[in-house]
Amino acid sequence: MNKTVKELSIFFPFWNEEKNVENVVKKAIPVAKRVALDWEILMIDDGSSDKTYQICKKLAEEDPKHLRAISHKPNRGYGAALREGFANARYDLVVFNDGDGQFDFSEVNKFIEKIEKADVAIGYREKRQDHPFRHFLMNLLKIWDFIFFGFYFRDIDCGFKMFKKSAIDKIIPLKSEGAMISTEILTKAKRKGLKIVQVKISHYPRVYGDQSGGNLRVIIRAIRESFKLWLDLRYGRI
Q1: Hey, which residues does 112 pair with through a beta bridge?
Q2: Residue 84: helix, strand or coil by DSSP?
Q3: N or C end of the chain: smaller count of CB under 10 Å?
Q4: pLDDT digits over 58-95, tens only?
Q5: Is the sign of the CA dihedral 208, 212, 213, 215 positive or negative?
Q6: Tens digit of pLDDT for each residue in 88-125?
């Protein structure tokens, strides 16, 4: 069977996802084998307090050629986990997918088709399966980013995105440690003139674990990071 791409780096950010890790990674492995000649899966543990990292290490031991477990302590945030993934990805095509089991990784083919004529491909959830408060926050983020950063996308914080490595090299270093990482990525990509395409994908209800995106501490941190990003842009620091 012909492979779709020569090489692919895949990474999953995990935080207290002990009930999801194995299922998410083992579902991704046959997809990776099908779509890429050379591939790797990075399991990024964001300082979990449960058994997430132990499970990641066990999986990595089963296939050290293709699977790697990476962890940092203490918990730093979603943005820090993505930065870790970008920094450790080895191949020319990089995709990340949230580790909560709410995406179907086999839809990576949709991103591969789009990325041929783009630098960045970002998912948008056809029907978001989250608490209504998360929908409200998403719409608020769209308005916020349009006002402060001058762009609009259908689903800014969707946790399924693909990048050419050359595009990552143009937007790093990234500074956001929390939820504003997506805004920072898209802001820098737009400023660098990178071509961004949007990809419609499926979204499924979370079966195990708890969401942290609606947490007040996370929201306050995101607002603080957003203002810092805006000031950096205004005064030419990025």
Answers
A1: none
A2: helix
A3: N
A4: 999 999 999 999 998 899 999 999 999 999 999 999 99
A5: positive
A6: 999 999 999 999 999 999 999 999 999 999 999 999 99
Residue 60: closest CA among 100, 29, 82, 91: 29
Q: Long-range contacts for 54-61 (Cβ within 8 Å, ≥24 apart)?
A: 55/18, 55/21, 55/22, 56/14, 56/21, 59/21, 59/22, 59/25, 59/26
Place of tokens 């050359």: 166
**pLDDT score, position 173:** 94
Closest Cα partner for 16 from 43, 51, 40? 51
Mark out the alpha helices in the chain (DSSP H runs): 21-35, 52-62, 78-88, 108-115, 132-149, 165-171, 181-191, 216-234
Q: How many CB atoms lie within 10 A of CB 203?
A: 20
**Token reading at 104:** 């179907």
DSSP-assigned letters across all residues of 183-228: HHHHHHHHHTT--EEEEEE------SS---TT-HHHHHHHHHHHHH
| pLDDT band at 150; cut points 50, 70, 90 | confident
Contact 99, 20 (CB under 8 A): yes
Tokens, residue 220: 């306050």
Beta bridge partner(s), residue 162: 95, 121
3-state secondary structure of 154: coil
Q: Provide the whole-model pTM.
A: 0.89
Tokens standing for residue 182: 């997506």
53, 69 contact by CB (below 8 A): yes
